[in-house]
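Record format v2
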Amino acid sequence: SQQGEEDPQALSIQEGENATMNCSYKTSINNLQWYRQNSGRGLVHLILIRSNEREKHSGRLRVTLDTSKKSSSLLITASRAADTASYFCATVQGAQKLVFGQGTRLTINP
Amino acid sequence: DAGITQSPRHKVTETGTPVTLRCHQTENHRYMYWYRQDPGHGLRLIHYSYGVKDTDKGEVSDGYSVSRSKTEDFLLTLESATSSQTSVYFCAIMGGWGGDTQYFGPGTRLTVL
């Protein structure tokens, strides 16, 4: 089974609104990562948050991590049409292996 | 795509034929990975390599084999393709500051008829 589970599976919002995606995981982690996948392309790393961090920012991205609840959230502020993509969380499992969730499909409507 | 190429990018083949997909990296990274991506399943790890001639199985390794004779190349072979192996295949390398993040190739779309 997947270590990370994203919620919701699909999200559709208007351009300019904020988009929030959630990820839950099962085992203890050293870090949690978020990736983006545009249609027909490979995944692109967005941001990594370590287990001793609670919040991290990168441009319009804000990631939070709650290790007590084994959950993380990705917030994209002031969304743009170019943010339309699938977003995946991933955690390291074992020796240098990442386990990915099934992803959230985000659609930004103009 | 961080110096990672995959070939071919698209392939259509028939059930029972052997297929080899190639992943090539120019970054000299030690760890390389093969995933398949299917609707409803996200990315699933097939095999990975932690050095030349060092490989290990992932979550969905049945029906697949891999080889790594050079640091830069990681080959995925379907010995006898089946329709259930129709998928998009991604290669990745592990890099980043702490060696924790993965960089993906553009993918190979494989259709087995």
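Chain B touches chain A through 26 residues (CB under 8 Å).
The first strand of chain B starts at residue 4 and ends at 7.
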